[in-house]
Amino acid sequence: MVYPKSLRLLIRGRLESGVLPRSGLQRVSGAPGNGESCVACSEIIAKSQFAMEGTGEHRTMFQFHVGCFSLWDVERNAS
């Protein structure tokens, strides 16, 4: 899958700053969006979109667009 370079750079920056975890998430699930912001791109995940949600360390919840989740997974494993 091809991702915009700007999104790839944004996710890399958020990985470096610690906003996004480098380790995997526990209990990952998917469901329709509920209007929350994507932790990777900060855009709203609309109800018409599918969202990925997972629990990180200290029970921190992360919600992603499906594409952002996929790119986060690629980038965290590449570094």
Summarize the structure.
The protein contains two helices and three strands. It is α+β, with helices and mostly antiparallel strands and 79 residues long. A hairpin with a 5-residue loop joins strand 2 (50-55) and strand 3.
Describe this structure in words.
By secondary structure, this protein is an alpha+beta fold. The protein has one domain (5-78). The chain is 33% helix and 23% strand. The chain contains 2 helices and 3 strands. A 3-stranded antiparallel beta sheet has the order 1-2-3. The two termini are 19 Å apart. The model has no long low-confidence stretch (mean pLDDT 93).
- Indicate the structural class: alpha+beta
Total of domains: 1
Largest sheet: 3 strands, antiparallel
Can you count the helices? Answer: 2
From the structure provided, what is the oligomeric state, counting identical versus distinct chains?
A: single chain
Which word captures the global form? globular
Give the strand tally. Answer: 3
Proportion of residues in helical segments: 25-40%
Task: Give the C-alpha Rg.
Answer: 12 Å
Question: What is the straight-line distance between the termini?
Answer: 19 Å
Mean pLDDT: 93
Largest beta sheet: strand ordering: 1-2-3
Low-pLDDT stretches are: none
Strand portion: 15-25%
Order of helices and strands: HEEEH
